[in-house]
Amino acid sequence: MARTIAFYLWSSGRAESETVHSCVTARPRGSFLSRRAVPCVLSGVLALMALACPPALAEETGRPVYEGAGGDPRISVSQPESTSQASGGYVRSIEPSLGPLGDPFGLRPVLKARGIEYSLTYIAETLGNPVGGLRQGAIVEDRLNLRLNLDLKRLAGWDGATVHANAYFIHGTGLSRYYVGNLLATSVIEALPASRLYVLWLDQQLFDGKLGLRIGQQAADTEFFVSQTATLFVNSTFGWPAITGLDLPSGGPAYPLASPAIRAKYVPGNGFSLQAGLYDGDPAGANRPGDDPEAQRLDRTGTNFRTRDPALVVAEATYAFNTQEGSKELPGDVTLGGWQHFGRFESLRIDNTGLPLADPNSTGIGRPLRGNAGIYAIYDQTLYRETGKDDEGLGFFVRAAWSPTRSSLVSAYLDTGLAYKGLFEGRDDDTVGISLAHARLSDDARRSDIDTIVYTGTAMPRRRAETVIEATYQAVVVPGFTVQPDVQLILHPGGGIANPRDPEGRRVRNAAVLGLRATVQY
Description:
Structural class: mainly beta
Number of domains: 1
GO molecular function: porin activity
Pfam family, one: OprB
Largest sheet: 16 strands, antiparallel, barrel
Family: Belongs to the OprB family.
Shape: globular
InterPro entries: Carb-sel_porin_OprB, OprB_Porin, OprB_sf
Protein name: Carbohydrate-selective porin OprB
Order of helices and strands: HHHHEEHEHEEHEEHEEEEEEHEEE
């Protein structure tokens, strides 16, 4: 384990290169998966299996102690063992299964007693689209996540204060970006290769923990717009929904970018909680006048710390019910929230002189629009809990959002799904799920396509919406190590855009995505 971690810390220094992972660079044109990629994938999975599954060490080490994703009370019995979503938190470590190699110097308990805790999560996955998309292909990508928590009461006598830092080391390339061409990225970890700071904040608890104030570099996707049941799924939209990721500058303060912020959370009791965050509205500066460059290239290390952009405010209220210990009723929660961005945006259809952007006489610069806003609602509910178990059963979620502002690319969004933990006999920690997400493009975006047809006289597809259906199964090999096969169906990639590789200009075909993920938590 130590050698594996050391290798990735060393290799992260090379991650700034935007060349694709060596496992896919040798893929012959037109082939689904290269001969070099296959042994890379298999060797990675086998190495993890060999690391985690010696017969003498693979014994059950106790039931997990869960907290709810997003920092709320746990209401979902089907929240999975591991997740790539930023809100999911940290569950169990593989350390006990490694025996004397788990902590060879005995540092972890010593550091914890002094208020210093660290953890690592490594995710490796391969994804491919044998059918549909811009073109067929496959990728290998991975991400190492380092977390550090400092309890300032133990370290310095500062009661109720905590410092938290999180850094990512990202390798490989994205299937959506280079092969599928869809809006709802096929993986939560998809990002340009980089070694970057994610969050760094100070949290102060007041009034016996009823009020929490947090200041520093933060990400909204760790606490807002979160469904605990949805943390099982691989597609990025089940973490930070596409309506915010596509409508806000730089994708909003969400993986892989965060921004300076102040967040307050009030928990008066009886299941109620209120929270609001004030964020710098553009984590990377991609919303400046002129061309809209790639946000991740503008902030390659996560250390821009922008503070002069127009603000983004996110707020939500949650009511969690039946969460008391010993409650015989099934737990759930209801959340209402919304966002308001105070910056300037460009029209998707009209230029700054009033002409359609598709008009040959247009300036090509969209009319300035003020602000972007939206509202959302979440319902997360345990539908069935197995007798005598508090972490096995069936969970359900549904999220809906609407953004009426004319600066929005996506105006309406809906996702829903079911997940069951412990469905099969003898596999109590495994989780299986199926989900659906639908993003509807705004009227202005669709009308701009009509304008293009009128002014060019060329028949072309008109964008409407994109839908993803996902089925997944997360198998726990030993506590802290999971393997997760995944299947996704992408309907109308890009909302139904024309394929630039098709000489006849037909729509990008519906894509089938097959994947396999391995996750190690330490």
